[in-house]
Here is the input.
Amino acid sequence: MIETLGEHAPSYATVKNWVAQFKRGDAPRPERPKTVTTPEITDQFHELILEDHGISAKSIAEQLCISRERVGSIIHEDLDIYDIYVYLFYVIVFTIYINYKSILMN
Here is the structure.
């Protein structure tokens, strides 16, 4: 290591400490960052669908700064939607119902 890294090489004590940590299972390991779906993201997701029923997963992902995989996860796990078209149908029917109800109230 000294030949390769020169003066930037870690000391023997540091390497010895790393080996001990690894053997104990305490060694820091690079992990994929955890992605958390917050209620705010779910609400924003829902609002995007209400605004544009034909919005694509790619567009949702770009607007919310999340991955397309996360969009699928929100649809299937967080919102419990297994068929996006059925969901959109219910959203449209609900929107019509709310508009119809407001017209009757006036």
In short: Residues 1-30 form one domain. DSSP finds six helices and no strands in the chain. The longest helix spans residues 84-105. Residues 6 and 44 are 52 Å apart (CA to CA).
